[in-house]
Amino acid sequence: MSVPVAPRRWPFLGHTPSMLRKRFEFTSSLRDRGEIVKVYLGPKPAYFVTSPRLVHRVLVTEGAHFRKGAMFDKFRPYLGEGLLLSDGAFHRRQRRLIQPAFHRDRIARYAETMAAAAEELVAPWRPGEVRVVDEDAQSLAVTVVGRALFSTAMGERVIEEVRRSVFVVIKQGMVRALSPNFVEKLPVPGNRRFDEATARMRAVVLEVIASWRAGGVDHGDLLSTLLLAQDEETGAGMTDQQTYDEVLTLLTAGIETTALALAWVFHEIGRHPEVERRLHAEVDEVLGGRPVTFADLPRLVWTARVVNEVLRTYPIWILMRRATEEVVLDGVRLAPGTEVIVSPHALHFDPRSFDDPGRFDPDRWSPERAATVPRGAFVPFGAGARQCVGNVFAQTELVIAVATVAARWRLVPVPDEPVRVRFTSAPYPGRMPMTAVPRHP
């Protein structure tokens, strides 16, 4: 079968607005060439899948025949065999061991941590104060994930180190992932900061693991769940290294997604008065001035739709898979080792799946309209067996944080200070100043 071939130029690097437009235009334009398109990563061919139907096959129905692709190989030196990168039987074992940490009853307990952290965030705000919202969102995400993982006094030391180092690891790690191999060996400041940050985080996380081993007490946190987990077949638990890999995976994946989404939520609320009005009406009706609880979530319908629309509007640019055995997609034979690329960004802005995709419209997530979205068209957390294990945790945290802030404050954009997007694989806002205005003076 003849496969359409895209232009050879693949715009991986560059963060200027014009370069970002070229990235998005390139990946979005591929849908006009067909559902599966050959592209070149330098001299190496790969296949770009553009339709929700084939994306669902790659991620779900044929997911067992793929592993994480080339983009993720460069994360292995510091994420090891954590759930994000492991494969095959080992990945299935680790997911079985970790999954209980994200059951509904555990999420309900974490919700208390989420609400308390959000209340602490807004408590010192003052009327008319300009908040740098992206920094506030990062701080909250670190606090929530850190406290969920480490509930002991020693855990506070880990949280402070995570606050200091995790975004260096995330950002510089993505630069490495999208750069030629030689870049990570250059004696440049970014590489030094990355190496120092990973070394500090490794030392403090292994220290708290050793402390837990010595005490052996279940503190009800994620770390206890990881260290107490035992394989049903062998009775074996995780080694210190395996636990470390999973902890670092949960820290990096759990913090980045939530921090970015939360910042963009308040950006979009500030730009859309009607969205803000409906949000405030809902939190006033549901909460009545009291703190949000896990039991309130089913009634925070509009808040959840706003969160979903932000997850659609600000997804990662691409993700990759590598075939582990021959797979045939619509007559195209993919040999073992073939790289397959999916663009959540292109999928989320495909007008065939979403009416007027450039418009911020939380109502597209009403039950009637959401039911028309094809499988594979909305993948903010991936899909299938490789779907992010913490997706419900993240969505719960976002709804609780948004409701907590919106119940007490409006965040108003600062005039003449436009927010720009800085993109590696995920959409980072440039500095996002917003003025805190009390809703109930």
Using brief descriptors, characterize the structure shown:
441 residues, alpha+beta, Cytochrome p450, five-stranded mixed β-sheet, three-stranded antiparallel β-sheet, globular
Ordered list of secondary-structure elements with their pairings:
Layout: H1 17-29, E1 36-41, E2 44-49, H2 52-61, E3 66-68, H3 70-73, H4 76-79, H5 88-98, H6 104-122, E4 130-132, H7 133-149, H8 153-177, H9 189-215, H10 222-228, H11 240-271, H12 273-287, H13 301-313, E5 319-323, E6 327-329, E7 332-334, E8 339-342, H14 344-348, H15 367-370, H16 391-408, E9 409-413, E10 421-423, E11 427-429, E12 433-438
Parallel strand pairs: 2-8
Antiparallel strand pairs: 1-2, 3-5, 4-12, 5-8, 6-7, 9-12, 10-11
Helix pairs in contact: 6-7, 6-16, 7-8, 7-11, 8-9, 8-11, 9-11, 11-13, 11-16, 12-13, 12-16, 13-16
